[in-house]
Predict the 3D structure of the following.
Amino acid sequence: MNINRRNLLILLGTTLGVITLDGCQIPPDNSSASVTPSTLPNDTKLAEKSGVFELTPLPYQYDALEPYIDKETMQFHHGKHYAGYIKKLNGAIANYPELKDKSAEDLLRGLNGLPNDIRTAVQNNGGGYVNHKMFWEIMSPNGGGEPQGKIATAIDESFGNFDSFKDKFNASGGSRFGSGWVWLVLGEDGKLKVISTANQDSPFLTGDYPIMGNDVWEHAYYLRYQNRRGDYLKAWWNVVNWPEVNRRYEEGLTVIS
């Protein structure tokens, strides 16, 4: 029997129980395996122990945020895009040992003092690292509902009520041209505000403290929502981890005080 290369790969994929796309191993749809290094995409494995900044698994399984954020999006977003930022950030500081004791947040805050040849790389990839680390943590399979605690009071004081805040947040995210983020930040004056940043720019660059942010790059939503960013922004509220957002708010108050 003649088996061409394509058929051989199909047979091997069936035998191994995985499908490989562009170097990214994706467990079959009926897999219930937890997120471990053995099931993470290849770029993730390379980033895990590649330098100062390491990638850790998500705090939940890739399919845990269904139906609002699909499994395949989470696999590529975490295991390819996020892992890529970490690899490049580590590469940027590799030749500067004096920077290896600094946090990514401190690198961003002190961006203008960094060597010229790595400044842009740290802005882009340091921002990508910090932004996404927060992003995974402020989402939860048990998320949604309305904020509780000090953040709830602060939102009401700053925006009138929760619905008004959501409308402002969604409008800012929807109007961001191209790729970027929409944020709830704590300003240096101790007040909450909604802002939007381009690309992977972090609020730390302008002295603001990020409380929560939603990624509006197309790779964060396109597989499920295509060009309907507004639908993604509305659905995202169903996975917001309000206890973590409240924790970040309380932490932010101590940082800026």
About this structure: Confidence is low (pLDDT under 50) at residues 1-49. Residues 150-256 form a domain with the minor pseudopilin epsh fold fold (CATH 3.55.40.20). Strands lie at 19-21, 24-26, 180-186, 192-198, 209-215. The two ends are 74 Å apart (CA to CA).
